[in-house]
Write a structure and sequence with these properties.
With 52 residues, the protein is an all-alpha fold. It is 54% helix and 0% strand. It is globular. It starts with a helix and ends in a 10-residue tail after the last helix.
Amino acid sequence: EAVAGTAERLASETGATILARACDVTNPDSVDQLVAGVVEELQRIDILVNNA
């Protein structure tokens, strides 16, 4: 919830599109599902912050 709140605040302050997502990086299927969902929504990934 804190991540979602921060993403909303940054989006409203900057006008940028910000997606805050979490996944289990030890599970390849979880990572694949995350990437597929983001690409489906935005067509590509420009910046990825991997903070595991």
